Amino acid sequence: MAEHIIAGIFTGTIWQIIGDTSAFGLIILIILTVMSLVSWMIILQKWREFRAVNNASLIFADYFKRSAKLADAAGRAKSLSLSPLSKIYEAGFEQLTELVERKNEAGQLQAKIVPLEDNDFDVVEMTMERTLTEEISRLEKKVIFLAITGSSAPFMGLLGTVVGIMNAFWSIGQRGSASLAIVAPGIAEALLATIVGLGAAIPAMIAFNWANNKLKSVNDQAYGFSLDFISRARKESY
After folding, report:
1. Is the residue at 66 inside a domain?
2. Which DSSP string corresponds to 98-111?
3. pLDDT tens digit string along 201-212?
4. Mean pLDDT across the chain, nearest whole number?
5. Does residue 146 form part of some domain?
6. Contact, 14 vs 23, CB < 8 A?
7. Residue-number span of the structural domain to which 124 is assigned
8. Cα gap 207→210, rounded to integer Å
9. Which is more confident, 64 or 184?
10. What's the CA gap between 123 and 100, in Å, rounded?
11. Which pLDDT score, from 0 to 100, does residue 8 have?
C-alpha cells in the first residue's frame, strides 16, 4: 500500500488521497509539510554558514600562527569577521591592550613599567571565553528547530495515522461493510501521514546531529586558539 502511495505522487493518485483526507488529517499534513520546508531552509542556510565559518577560521588561524606578534593579526581579523576566532582575537586583544594601558598609566606615576600579572591574563581569558559563548550561541540559532521537527514530526505523523485508521473503522461502521473500497481511503490517509511525518523527521534529525558536531568542532578549535593566544601574550611580556 505504501509503495502505491509513493508511486501515486507521479500518477495523480496522491492528490486523490489528499482530497479524501479528513479536515484534521489535512491540518496534520499541512503542519508537517511546513515543518519539513522550514527544516530544509535551515539545513541549507547552516550548511553555507558553517562552510563560510570554517574557511574563514582556517585562513585566520594560519595567519595568526605565522604572525610575529599578536598585534600583527589585527587587520586580518577585521577582514575575516565571519570566523569566531577573529572575534575572540579582537575581544582578547582589546582587553589585553586596555589592561596594558592601565598598567602603564600607573607605572608612569611610579616612573617604571608595570608588567601584567596572572590575574590580568585571567581577565583576558574570561573575556575570550565570553566571546566564544556568544559566537557559539550565534551559530546555534535556528538549529533547535531541527531538533523540534525531528522529535515531534513522527508523533504528529502517528496522530494522523491514528485518525486515518479511525476514519476507516468509522466508514465500516456506517456502511456495514469491510470491503477494500470502504477501508482504503482511511488506510491511505493513515499511511500518508506516517510517510510525511518520517519524511520531515529523518532529515531534520540527521541535520541536527551534523550541526551539533560542527558546533563542537568550532568550540574545540576556538578554545585551543584562546589558549594559544594567552600563551603568546605571556611570552611577549605584556
Report:
1. yes
2. HHHHHHHHHHHHTT
3. 999 999 999 999
4. 83
5. yes
6. no
7. 2-6+24-235
8. 5
9. 64
10. 12
11. 47
Residue 117's nearest CA partner among 103, 128, 135 is 103
pLDDT higher for 137 or 103?
137
Total number of domains constituting the chain = 1
pTM, rounded to two decimals: 0.79
How far, in Å, are 120, 172, 208, 224 from residue 231 at the CA level?
A: 13, 76, 35, 11
- Alpha helix (H) ranges present in the chain? 2-8, 13-20, 23-66, 74-79, 84-109, 118-140, 143-175, 180-235
User: How many Cβ atoms sit within 10 Å of the Cβ of residue 131?
Assistant: 21
Give CA 61 to chain center in angstroms: 23
pLDDT tens column, 105-147: 755 544 445 567 778 888 999 999 999 999 999 999 999 999 9
Place of cell 500518508: 192
- What are the grid coordinates assigned to 28, written together? 496534520
